[in-house]
Amino acid sequence: MSGQALLRLQSIVKKFGDFTALDNIDLEINEGEFFTIVGPSGSGKSTLIRLLVGMDDVTSGQILLNGDRIDQTPANLRPTCMVFQSLALFPHMSVGQNIEFPLKLRKEDPSARRTRALELLDLLRLPRDYYDKRISQCSGGERQRVALARALAFDPEILFFDEPLSALDYRLRKTLEKELKDLHARTGKTFVYITHSLEEAMVMSDRIAIMKDGRFEQIAVADEIYGRPVSRFVAEFMGEVNLFELSADGSGALSSDILTIREGTRLDALAQGQHGLLMVRPEYVRFAAPGENYDFTLSGKLHGEYALGSRIQYELETPSGMVTVEKLREDRLNAHEGDTVAVGFNADVTHFIGDAA
Ligand code: ATP
Question: Where is the ABC transporter domain (predicted)?
Answer without folding.
Answer: 7-238
